[in-house]
Amino acid sequence: MKTLDSRGILHAAASRGDHDTATAHLDATGLGEWFCAARIGWGDKSAAVRHIAETLNIGLDTVAFIDNDPAERAEVLAALPMVRCYPADLAGQLPELPEFRPAHVTAEAAGRRLLYRTEWRRRQAEEESGGDRRAFLASLDLVMEIAPATEGDLARASELTVRTHQLNSTGLVYGEEDLRRLIAAPDHQVRLARLSDRFGDYGVVGLSVTELTPTESVLRLMLMSCRVASRGAGELNRSGRCRPR
Q: CB-based contacts of 57: which residues, under 8 Å, 6+ apart?
């Protein structure tokens, strides 16, 4: 679990049983902190997996399901064919499989679990808000900080262009060397956006690349992480603050 977590691979619990008993066991064994979400009850596990993916705003095609019961794996595979399923006796071998070995591990990825545990608390607070979404968003006290990208940001900036497709203005993908060249170029500006609220930090969630010509500024790329789209980040003039740096 620690190895996968260090690579930015999240853990969540989709279990059949009594919620309080299961979570008490996780906490007693010291495992609770390693799970960014938990869905425990008496329904189908495929429904639990779907709920976790929706709550964390991640695609089902990025989810892997591991279970010791072949019937449970078959049920999830039948309902969610895009989810990869593994028997529990392969748990110790997962870090060696290619699909669990990302090419690059950024500082953002290594801290992803804490970001998503915070996101789980946000979702719970939203569910408890009584359905008044506008009031909930206003209560978040969102702050976005926009700053020039630096050498230390290259891996995360490149990761954003690869991972964020739905909210990518042009669909362009920039590698680290491409971004390094653009950061150093006097005729380009590369900016990163970091978002935070009263619950904590979302991390780096946005990227823009602008080309400067003698007469105009041309926006070549603007994107935002899918996981903050539902937070009203595009309307900070109404529900929060935007702070350039």
A: 119, 226, 227, 229, 230
- The two most distant CA atoms of the chain are separated, in Å, by 66
pTM, 2 dp = 0.58
Residues 48 and 15: their CA atoms lie apart, in Å, by: 8
Strand partners, 87: 67
Asked whether the beta carbons of 161 and 171 are under 8 A apart, the reply is no
Identify the CA nearest to 232 among candidates 137, 130, 100, 95. 137
The string of pLDDT tens digits covering residues 43-92 is: 999 999 999 998 877 889 999 999 999 999 999 999 999 999 999 999 99
- Where on the phi/psi map is residue 157: left (φ > 0), alpha (ψ -120 to 50), or beta? alpha
Token code pair at residue 240? 């929060």
User: Cα(201)–Cα(118) distance, rounded to whole angstroms?
Assistant: 8
Q: Look up tokens 């090419």; give the residue.
A: 103
76 vs 45: CA distance, rounded Å: 7
Answer whether 39's CB lies under 8 Å from 66's CB: no
The count of C-alpha atoms lying within 13 angstroms of the C-alpha of 233, restricted to the half-sphere facing its C-beta, is 25
Strands, DSSP E only, in the chain? 12-16, 37-41, 64-67, 84-87, 142-148, 188-197, 200-212, 217-224, 240-244
| 218, β-bridge pairs | 211
Beta carbons of 86 and 94 less than 8 angstroms apart = yes
